[in-house]
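Internal ticket #5521
Category: modeling
Description: The requester needs a full-assembly model to guide mutagenesis choices. All entity lines are attached below as received. Residue total reported by intake: 898.
Assigned to: D.W.
Attached entities:
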Amino acid sequence: MAGLTNSRRRGGGAGWLAAAPLLVVTLIAFGIPTVVLVVGAFSVKGGGFGFENLSATMREPYLGALWNSVTLSAVVAILGAVLGAFLAQAVLTSRSGLLREAVLTASGVLANFGGVPLAFIWIATLGNSGVVTAALGLGSGVLYNFWGLALVYLYFSVPLMVLVIAPALDGLKPQWREAALNNGASTWQFWRHVGIPVLGPALLGGAVLLFGGAFAAYATAAAMVGASVPLVTLQIADALTGNVLIGYENIALALSLDMIVIALLVMAVYLPLQKRSSRWLA
Amino acid sequence: MAGVTWRRLTLGVAAVYFLVPLAIAVWFTVYNESRGFSLGAYGRIVSAPGFGESLLKSLLLGAAVIVLVLLLALPALLAVRLGAPGLRPVLETITTLPLIVPPITYVVGIANALRGGTDALAATPFWQTLISIQDENFPVVLVLAYVMLALPFAYRSLDTGLRAVDVRTLVEAARNLGASWPYVLFRVILPNLRSAVAGASFLSLALVMGEYTIAALMGYRTFPVWIVTVSGNDGQLSVALSVLSLGLIWLLLLTLSGAGRKSK
Amino acid sequence: MTVELRELRRSFGGTVALDGLSLTIEQGELIAFLGPSGCGKTTALRCVAGFERPDTGAVFIDGADVTRVPANRRDAGMVFQSYSLFPNLNVRDNVAFGLRVRRRSADERHSRAAELLELVGLGGFGERYPHQLSGGQQQRVALARALALQPKVLLLDEPLSALDAKVRVNLREEIRRLQLELGITTIFVTHDQEEALSVADRVAVLKSGRLEQVAPPAEVYDRPATPFVAEFVGTMNHLPGRVSGETVEVFGQTLPLDGTAPGAEVDVLVRPEAVRVTPSGDGRGFILASSFRGSIARLRVQLDGGGEVLADVPGHEAVRLAPGLKVDVTLVERPVLTAPRTAVAAPVEPVG
């Protein structure tokens, strides 16, 4: 007995030792840049600390960019979550194994498809000299605005939602629906009282992931809209490459801190929800 | 019936939205009004300057990231199951960091740290180290950054794989039969994790082959960065590169699911 | 409130689940549908619940044809095999779900739920969530939910098969007590013959979508209508026998035939409790193994001519009849069933 507890304890020590390389690398590769970022965001011109950089990000033109980023991400998250859930349900209930397999594989590919290549494909389709633009006589500038960006972001967000929500939809037990019918409920009443509440955490969790993806996206927007739709990621890149007003050298750091705080708030919603969902759908 | 109608409508709209741009992109790369049908755009990819060099660099980075990710994540994950469950929340936190810190803010942090570090350490031997990890041909900084970004995916994949294997019982059974620790690790545990390890590797590789923001802003010409710089004003070439990178993701995913299926 | 199944037929793709099943379940009766998996017992139940529609045939509840009535407008409360409680609702709201759908007041819902939970022995559990309950408790809640709308028929679809042995026995007695108390017509689907025999007024044995026998438990056990029933319900020894006229010769004994024999050379079907084992130095076999089960001990006797026989003896004789002992085997004198000759003295354990 003594030997067992002894080896347990030793196992614990060895365990932390086995994890040490990971912890050290994380500390260096993530810890240092983060500390530098936070310290820099609060460092003011001429030495010392203050809120000057952060308060600058709360004024134009930066505030507008922040607001654009948040609203664009929210729109993509909500639309993507709803459309992705409908698409997943349509595919999963179609009883065609082939369709299911094909859509899930395609979703895996498209959810990982982003950056500049995504922008190129949409420019070829709906850009000023795009094929669909010409065919439908849409005129220029269809794609290069807020809603054009949303349309393009949905191209990877909806598939990501399909991937996230499919296991949850699979986890909806057929007995629940039958038990509800057996108790006199209509299909709509089943969804209202059971289906949607049970899926709720997974839906919201998915929406949070989509928000994060759209919020962090940079390359697609840079290739598509340049400066015509100001986004916080574009502003940070500008500032980082030296394209910044005198006295605003640390603005990239402050904007980055803003982004991290927003992402933290969103994640704070996500994590507890995910726990609840996995308990229900286990 | 109503159920069939909404399903058809949903699938129809999705098919148009997802397939039309793809079809147009492919058409655009092979057909030109003046020259007609030609695969020239794809030929130009291979002959474009820097193709082999940047592809090789990205593959090299990918290999380094895979090795490092596995070396860091596997021992930690095994430790969680073999007697240090207190590690789990720590690992969970580490692997959610990249979700909270977007790549663009991460690159801001890295760039500032490097600049600050280079200034502060200018007179010490560490300066040389700092310079060498930023080597254009094999940027160690980029490897470290990608390792951090790949960790969440690798961690989930390995964790799922380990869940299917009762590691503790396997280890105890093997030890009881007289196996040494290295034998247990390489001949007992790893073979049971083959598909999870393959999954983690392919996800890491996919990340390296697709990441643009960090590499571009730090000035490294990896394959995704090369794609953007080389397309320039050649519309057909740029779309052909997009189709190619989509195909690359598809290929990686296919290999991934193939590796997962083989072990079952 | 009788339930009548009339000539139900249903096939899924190529497999026939129901092949002309006809059966009438009387008012207040608990009938068990018993059979191996794939015999159609669950499909029959789901036809009554309205989750399946028979290809042909009809279901009558209380004299009314309900074949085309949708599931949410039938008067039949159902308990599923497992995990059917709504995970997002607490126990009280699960039980009161049907009342909520019918827009009853909160007061009525709460008092009815409390009453039903009291009935199934879970008073005070109303605020708990399904994941905080044991499997047995979950099934009690499911039972309360099925009874909440005071249905004409109670349908139980293998409600105990996911539970531990001890809980299973307790709960099946509880279900029977409740069913008698409420006098509700009940169909209990199970693949466990012991369960069916112990709770039902009548047992309907199904095979390949057809009714093999429907009779009170004792009759199904003692006078199985077909060899299939004989083997599915309880344990049977197959002993080689030779038919002559109205009798069959087996182990040197001549026993009267029950029903007609399928030929001259037959298997005689004998229950282990109808086999007597006595120590004898020049007996025809020896005890191979003995498993003590409390009130009885089941012996495996190896016969000298090859083959084995299972015999149940009183538990207190287990010490005397130890493995290795030379014994003689005799059969209780009573009419016996026969089946076409298969193997030499191969006892068949029940399925499930």
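Resolution: model delivered.
Comment from assignee: Chain B has a mean pLDDT of 82.
Ticket closed.
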